[in-house]
Write a structure and sequence with these properties.
With about 70 residues, the chain is mostly beta strands. Helix content is about 5%, strand content about 40%. A 4-stranded mixed sheet has the order 1-2-5-4, with no helix packed on it. A two-stranded antiparallel sheet has the order 3-6.
Length: about 70
């Protein structure tokens, strides 16, 4: 069992049926900051795409990876 916490943004669906996820791990929260201001907005996410359980995801470790439109 793990106490790891993360914030997920599932795009165009709800886990486990989402086609893409952006994830912020707890230890990256200090450099990413509060993302509640992005709720309900269209957000561009940049970074390396990796496959996790057959689905693409980007790990967000810096606020500069997120840009609201």
């Amino acid at each position: 069992s793990s106490n790891l916490r993360a914030t997920f943004s599932d795009l165009a669906g709800v886990y486990p049926d989402q086609p893409f996820t952006a994830v912020i791990f707890e230890n990256d929260m200090p450099t990413v900051g509060d993302v509640s201001d992005l709720e309900g907005k269209t957000v561009d996410v940049t970074g390396n795409v990796r496959m996790y359980h057959g689905k693409p995801e980007i790990i967000v470790s810096s606020r500069s990876q997120l840009a609201a439109r």
